């Protein structure tokens, strides 16, 4: 089969203790990037470094220091394990003492100890995702990837889990992947916007929300619900035509040109450079600058 790169020219730096959000539609390459950063996939070219070491080497040198929480909590949790066994497993693999850790972890994720002998099917979605989070933080990792970790939860449970993640953060570094900007902006110091395998904009969370540069980011922002009905009425919603093209056959030039309301002939031929337009604010669009 012909191989087709999913990601192209992605450059991203995460500083220690920070939280970076990645947003974009499904099929944009966010999860693939998360898997590359975790060392679960090998890039065809380019490298991922953690503290100056290639990620595969770093993770061998620092067992249990990197972790992931997936969207699908039902298939992340072995249905034959109790809550206690699920949380205990990563500790046992590293031969760490689990006896005191389990009550403490349950408390940290806001679950009563009475649940420790329950099985996944006896828990609600929110409770099970909390168990997955307890499991992910059990070995005190320094870096966690949350891959659409709250996307399948109800909005009220989402808010509780996000609150919990903010409380737990401490010195941990988060990469938070989601398709919903309103979810990411609460938890991220910086936000990267991905479209069809490329990073199209990257900025501090506040800056990106106040001053989006890329037309795709503006579209995503226009879809974020506003609680004030007056503001909401005045705001213009930008609706994109068509679906995201297949990553197997990406358009030439700017990959967004087939859906961009501002596309010109140049956009169909030339790939826009990902440039810094203000301190720390990067974007790739021919219309900028
Ligand atoms: Fe739109 Fe052209 Fe900018 Fe791409 S480069 S986002 S098509 S205006």
- Order of strands, main sheet, comes to 4-5-6-1-7-8-10-9
Secondary structure tally, helices:
12
Query: Which hetero ligands occur in this complex?
Result: iron/sulfur cluster
Question: What overall form do the CA principal axes indicate?
Answer: globular
What share of residues are in beta strands? 15-25%
In short, what is this structure?
By secondary structure, this protein is α/β, with parallel strands linked by helices.
How does the SSE layout of this entry go?
Elements: E1 19-23, H1 30-38, E2 49-50, E3 53-54, H2 55-61, E4 66-70, H3 73-76, H4 83-93, H5 101-108, H6 125-137, E5 143-147, H7 155-168, E6 173-177, H8 181-187, E7 190-195, E8 198-204, H9 205-210, H10 215-222, H11 229-234, H12 265-269, E9 275-278, E10 281-283
Parallel strand pairs: 1-6, 1-7, 4-5, 5-6
Antiparallel strand pairs: 2-3, 7-8, 8-10, 9-10
Helix pairs in contact: 4-6
The chain binds iron/sulfur cluster.
Notes on the structure:
With 289 residues, this protein is α/β, with parallel strands linked by helices. It contains twelve helices and ten strands. The chain has helices spanning 30-38, 55-61, 73-76, 83-93, 101-108, 125-137, 155-168, 181-187, 205-210, 215-222, 229-234, 265-269; strands at 19-23, 49-50, 53-54, 66-70, 143-147, 173-177, 190-195, 198-204, 275-278, 281-283. The chain has an eight-stranded mixed β-sheet with strand order 4-5-6-1-7-8-10-9, with helices on both faces. A two-stranded antiparallel sheet has the order 2-3. The longest helix is centred in the middle third of the chain and has 14 residues, at 155-168. It is globular and about 65 Å long. The termini are far apart. The mean pLDDT is 90. Iron/sulfur cluster binds next to loops. Iron/sulfur cluster is lined by residues 215, 254, 256-257, 260, 262-263, 267, 272, 285-287.
């Amino acid at each position: 089969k012909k191989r087709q790169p999913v990601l192209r020219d992605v450059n991203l730096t995460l500083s220690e203790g920070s939280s970076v959000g990645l947003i974009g539609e499904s099929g944009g390459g966010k999860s693939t990037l998360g898997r590359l950063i975790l060392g679960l996939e090998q890039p065809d070219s380019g490298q991922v470094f953690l503290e100056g070491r290639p990620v595969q080497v770093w993770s061998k040198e620092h067992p249990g220091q990197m972790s992931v929480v997936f969207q699908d909590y039902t298939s992340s949790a072995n249905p034959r394990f109790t809550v206690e066994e699920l949380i205990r497993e990563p500790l046992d693999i590293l031969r760490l003492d689990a006896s005191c850790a389990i009550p403490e972890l349950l408390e940290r994720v806001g679950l009563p100890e009475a649940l420790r002998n329950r099985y996944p099917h006896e828990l609600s979605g929110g409770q099970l995702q909390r168990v997955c989070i307890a499991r992910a933080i059990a070995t005190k990792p320094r870096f966690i990837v949350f891959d659409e970790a709250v996307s399948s939860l109800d909005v009220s449970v989402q808010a509780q889990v996000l609150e919990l993640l903010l409380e737990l953060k401490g010195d941990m570094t988060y990469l938070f992947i989601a398709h919903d900007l309103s979810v990411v902006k609460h938890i991220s110091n910086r936000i990267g916007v991905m479209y069809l395998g490329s990073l199209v904009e990257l900025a501090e969370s506040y800056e990106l929300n106040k001053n989006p540069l890329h037309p795709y980011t503006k579209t995503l922002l226009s879809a974020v619900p506003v609680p004030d009905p007056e503001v909401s009425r005045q705001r213009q919603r930008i609706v994109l035509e068509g679906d995201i093209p297949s990553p197997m056959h990406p358009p030439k030039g700017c990959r967004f040109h087939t859906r961009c309301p501002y596309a010109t002939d140049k956009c169909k031929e030339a790939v826009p450079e990902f440039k810094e337009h203000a301190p720390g604010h990067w974007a790739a669009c021919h219309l900028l600058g």
